[in-house]
Structure formats: structure tokens, C-alpha cells
Specification:
The protein contains 5 helices and 15 strands. The chain is α/β, with parallel strands linked by helices. A hairpin with a 2-residue loop joins strand 5 and strand 6. Helix 3 crosses helix 4. Bound molecules: zinc ion (ZN).
Length: 304
């Protein structure tokens, strides 16, 4: 029966070594990584553009509203401290709102395990509109499951940065690494990117998307589409049509929400001259815009 004892011993040793491998080695490698190297999100400059889920993600305004729902005091403190920390190092400001908030925060009292790991929280943008300039975040939510045992509320900061569009980092020293550790920090490149994105003011931006015109005898048919690629709904504006420098038509443009557009079809506009050379379309907007240069388009006429 000696072989059985030896077998059991070998098996026990094997089990212990497995145990050590799974529970100690990963922690040691993380600690080792901490001492060497920086805490930036990106490990090298080449993947600098890939910090967010999509390119250029931001909320319309740097003043972002939130509502905390159903969270015990400790977790509420964690999330409020996370808002404070991010607003201290960036252009962003967060303020509470009872209804129609942009960031919704809720908490879960039950610990959850997935793939052998504790789920600390979940967070992300949940409503995004793509425009020419930005992927505009209208709404995001955070589910805080574990309260932070760290000096800083690292879990809440991690989830808040997800809501602001940030993906996971490959750097174990960075707070956006997929596993949480108290030694992780925000680094420099996250606040730098936030400040670059929010340096653009919260303006509307009306621009022509498509313009076509056909001339038949002395009549003009026109199709125009205008889109708001800005960070704010546009106000009342006008589209003015010039034929060889002469104002022939003005069309009222109602306010347009971010990312939305309008199409205008005009038939049989009478033109006094026979030979038309140039049509000019101009968006007359009496409000500030991200770009005024895209408010004018010039077309050469197509006879039929
Ligand atoms: Zn995460």
C-alpha cells in the first residue's frame, strides 16, 4: 500500500502548489509591476488614440448632472468622492439633479462573482450619438457593488471613467486596469485627454450635409440637408439662397437637436436671369457655433 501513500502525498503537494499558484502568484506580479513603470493609461504612445470605447467621446457640457439612487452611506460617499477627485484634476464639474440626470448611480448589496473574480462594479455610457465632431454621450450609468477598501475610492473612480468613455487599460498600475488594486492611480494621460475633449465649448454646429440644384428654363429646384454636428441644440436660423449674388429665397430653420438634421426641398423658384453661373447657400445663424466656415456652400448650376 506504499504506492497509495506516495500517490496521496504527490497529489497533496500538487494541490498545494496549485493553490499557491492561483492565489499568490497573480498578486506578486501585480505588486512587482507597481514598483516599476508609470501609471498612465497607455503603455506606449502608439495606442494613445484608443483610450476610449469610440473616438472623441464626451458629454455635451463639462457640467454633468448625476443622481444617486438606493446606495448605502459608505458607497454614496465613495461615488461623491470620485466626482470630486475627477473634477479637481479636470475641467469637469458634477452636480446632483433629482430628475433628468445624465449619470445615474445605483448600488447592489449582494457581492457577485464572475469567472472566479469579485465583480466590483459596472459602468458605462448608455446613450451615445455620433456626430462629425464627437461621439456625444447623453446618458451613462454606474452600478456600484463593492465599496472601496482603499484610501481613494478606486472602484467608483474606475466606473465613473467608464461612463466618461474610457475603456480598460493594459497597464496594471493604472486605475482602468480590469482588476482593482489600491495602488493604482489615474495617471496623467486620462485627465489630459478629458481636458482636450472638453476644451471645445458647448456650441451648436449647423452645416450643410447635401445640397443639389437643378435649373429648368428660369426655374430652380433645390434639395438641401442641414445637420447639427455640435454639442448643443441649435436656435432658430435661416438658409439663404443666392443666385449670382442675388438673394432669391430665405428658408426658416427650426431648432435642431444634437446629431439631427433637416431636409428642405424647394421647387420652381423663379430666377430673373437666363444664364446662371453660381448658386450660393448660406446658413444664417445668429448664435455661436463650433465652426462658421461650414455655413456656406457654392454650387455651379447643372442644366437639364
Ligand atoms: Zn472596468
Amino acid at each position: 500500500m506504499r504506492w497509495k501513500i506516495i500517490f496521496n502525498l504527490i497529489f497533496a503537494l500538487f494541490a498545494i502548489s496549485l493553490f499557491i499558484f492561483y492565489w499568490f502568484v497573480p498578486f506578486r506580479t501585480i505588486e512587482f509591476g507597481m514598483e516599476s513603470g508609470h501609471s498612465n493609461f497607455t503603455l506606449n504612445d502608439s495606442d494613445n488614440g484608443n483610450m476610449q470605447f469610440y473616438s472623441r467621446m464626451r458629454f455635451p457640457s463639462p457640467q454633468i448632472s448625476y443622481r444617486i439612487d438606493n446606495c448605502p452611506l459608505q458607497k454614496q460617499d465613495n461615488i461623491e468622492e470620485a466626482f470630486e477627485i475627477i473634477s479637481d484634476i479636470t475641467l469637469l464639474d458634477f452636480y446632483p439633479k433629482n430628475y433628468g440626470e445624465e449619470i445615474y448611480v445605483t448600488c447592489d448589496s449582494k457581492n457577485r462573482i464572475e469567472g472566479g473574480l469579485f465583480i466590483a462594479g459596472e459602468g458605462g455610457p448608455t446613450n451615445i450619438t455620433k456626430t462629425e465632431n464627437f461621439n456625444v454621450i447623453f446618458y451613462g450609468s454606474i452600478l456600484l457593488i463593492k465599496e472601496s477598501k482603499c484610501e481613494r475610492p478606486n472602484i467608483a473612480i474606475h466606473e465613473l471613467l467608464h461612463v466618461l468613455g474610457f475603456d480598460h487599460s493594459d497597464n496594471p498600475n493604472n486605475i482602468m486596469y480590469y482588476l482593482s488594486s489600491c495602488k493604482q492611480t489615474i495617471g496623467d494621460d486620462i485627465p489630459e485627454l478629458i481636458n482636450r475633449l472638453y476644451a471645445t465649448p458647448t456650441y451648436a454646429d449647423l452645416s450643410f450635409e447635401n445640397v443639389s440644384a437643378t435649373m429648368h428654363r428660369r426655374y430652380l429646384d433645390i434639395n438641401i440637408s442641414v445637420r447639427n454636428n455640435g454639442l448643443k441644440a441649435s436656435e432658430e436660423a435661416k438658409v439663404i439662397i443666392y443666385v449670382d449674388g442675388k438673394n432669391v429665397e430665405e428658408v426658416e430653420l427650426d431648432p435642431i437637436e444634437i446629431g439631427f438634421g433637416r431636409t428642405i426641398g424647394l421647387r420652381n423658384i423663379w430666377v430673373s436671369q437666363i444664364n446662371v453661373e453660381q448658386l450660393e447657400f448660406f446658413i444664417d445663424a445668429g448664435f455661436e457655433e463650433l465652426e462658421k466656415n461650414n455655413n456656406r456652400i457654392i454650387l455651379q448650376i447643372k442644366e437639364d
